[in-house]
Amino acid sequence: MANIRLHNPFMKSLAVLVLFFSLPVRAQKTMPGDVVIIASKILHENRTVYIHYPKTDSSNVNKRFPVLYLMDGESHFDMLAQYTDYLSRWDVKVIPQMIVVGITNTKRTRDLTPTVSIINYFGKPDTSAVSWMKPSGGNAEFLQFIQEELIPYVDANYKTQSYKIFAGHSFGGLASINCLLTQPAMFDAYVAVSPSFWWDREYVLKLTDRTLQKGALLNKKLFYSDASEGISDSSTFHTNLLKFDSLLSVKKIKGLEHEYKYYPAESHMTEPVSAYYDALRFIFRDWKEN
Amino acid sequence: MANIRLHNPFMKSLAVLVLFFSLPVRAQKTMPGDVVIIASKILHENRTVYIHYPKTDSSNVNKRFPVLYLMDGESHFDMLAQYTDYLSRWDVKVIPQMIVVGITNTKRTRDLTPTVSIINYFGKPDTSAVSWMKPSGGNAEFLQFIQEELIPYVDANYKTQSYKIFAGHSFGGLASINCLLTQPAMFDAYVAVSPSFWWDREYVLKLTDRTLQKGALLNKKLFYSDASEGISDSSTFHTNLLKFDSLLSVKKIKGLEHEYKYYPAESHMTEPVSAYYDALRFIFRDWKEN
C-alpha cells in the first residue's frame, strides 16, 4: 500500500549517497487521494472535497468502483479511505474496492439540517445571535449540490459505478436519513451514525412517520446506530434511535434492508470507528466478487 | 488533517487558471509520514520502515510522544496511523498522540518465528524444499535489530517518549509474546492479535509456562485476541488462546494487566480492524492528558 516517492531530484541524489554510506534514507509516505475544490453555483461558494480511489493494478485496470459519499470529510475521510482499502485487499476482500468522497464543511449546521430552527438539544430555544445553530435549514440545497455538481464531477473524473452510498455522523446522520426520505433515488445505501434526531423537536423522526407508507417499496440499505451519549439525565440519542428502529419495523417497507447497532461502550466521538466498519460489512454482507 | 499540497509549479499555475474559470482544482492529499530505509548490520540487509507522527501545532510543539512499533507494516500501518490520529484528536482524545513505526517484511517467517521448525499448522512436518516456512527461527536477531538499530534511529530522529508498544498479528503476534517472554524490558505494552501459537508444536505456549514464575513481578500491559479461524475441523487459534489466557490467570503475575478478546464474527484477516482498536483503548484506558 505504500508509495515510496523521493520528492525531488536533490532527495534522489541524497538517497544514493546515503545508501552508499549505510545511513538511513527518508522519503515521504503518501496515500492515493486528491483534494478537489469545486466552485459551487448552487451554494455560491468553493467546496473542498477529498477523493480517495483504489490503486490501479493488473487486477482492476478495467474495473469501475462504487462510490461512498461521506459528510464531515475532515473528521472521517481518512478512516473510510483506510477501511475501504484494507477490507478490499486481495487477502481480506470482504467488500469491493471503492472510491471515497469526503465532503468537508463550510457552514455545517446550515448544510446538514433540514429546517430552520433555534430549538436546541434540550428542546429550548437558543436565541443567542451568535448561536452555533445559525444558520440552519439548508440541507435541501446541500443535497442539490451533491446531486447536480459533485456527483457529475466525480462520475466524469473517476472510474465510477452507479452504486453509491451516503454516510454521515451526528448532523451528518440526520442529513443521510433526510436524504433517504426526500431524495431516495440519489443513493443505494444510507449510513446514519448517531443521527441528531433531536433537531427541531424530532422533525426527521416525524417526517419518517409521515413519509414512509406502510408496506411501500424502497429497495435500499440503511445502517443506523448510537452510543452512550447521555448529556445530563437525558439520553435523547438512544431514545430516538429506538423510536426510529421500531417505526421501521412497524412500517414493513418492502426491499429496505436495515440494521440498527447500539454501542454502549462507545461515546459520540469514538462510535464512528466501530459503526463505519460495521456499516460497510452490513452493506456488503452478501457481496461476492464477480 | 488534510494537507493541501499542489505538487509542482505547473499545478500551481493551473490552480490559479482553473479557479479563474470556476473549474475544479485538484491537488494530492497527503498524510504525514516517512518511508525510511535502514541498512541493518545485524540483519545484513536494508529494512524499510514507515514512520507516522503527530502533526506539530501550538498544542503539542514541545511534546514528546509514545511510540508504537508494529510488525507487518505493509498490512496494518495505515490502520494504526489513522486510529492513533483520530483517537487522539482534540474532540475525541481517548489516547495520547503517538508515533507509529511500521516495520515491513523481507523474510517474514524468518524474522517473526522463535525457532527453526518445519512443523506446519496441522502438526506435520513440511519437508518441501520451497516451503513458505523456510527459513525460520530468526526472531531473536529481529528483536536485536529493533533494539539496537531501529529504536535508536527513531529516538534520534523523532520526538519520542520512552513509553513503547510492540504490536503484531499472526506470526507478528507470536513475535510480540516471544519478546515479552525473552526481552520484557524492550516494551511497556504488548499486543498479540491472533498469535500463531501453533508454531513448532506450541513452542511459545510452553515457553510461557516455563518462563513466567507464579507470582513474579512484570509491570506490563498485554492484549491478545483471536477470531473465527478454524481450518477444517481444527480451530487451533482459539484453543491455544484459551490455554494462554488460563495460564496467565493461574500464574498471577504481579503488575501484568492483560485483556483477552475473542471475535467470533471476525476472520483472521478482518480481526485486526477491531482488535487493534480495542488494544489501543485497553492500553490507554486509565490515560488522562496531563
From TrEMBL, chains A, B:
Pfam families: Esterase. InterPro entries: AB_hydrolase_fold (IPR029058), Esterase-like (IPR000801), Siderophore_Hydrolase_D (IPR052558). Keywords: Hydrolase, Signal. GO terms for molecular function: hydrolase activity, acting on ester bonds. It comes from the Bacteria. Residues 1-27 form the signal peptide. Belongs to the esterase D family. This is Alpha/beta superfamily hydrolase. It comes from Chitinophaga ginsengisoli.
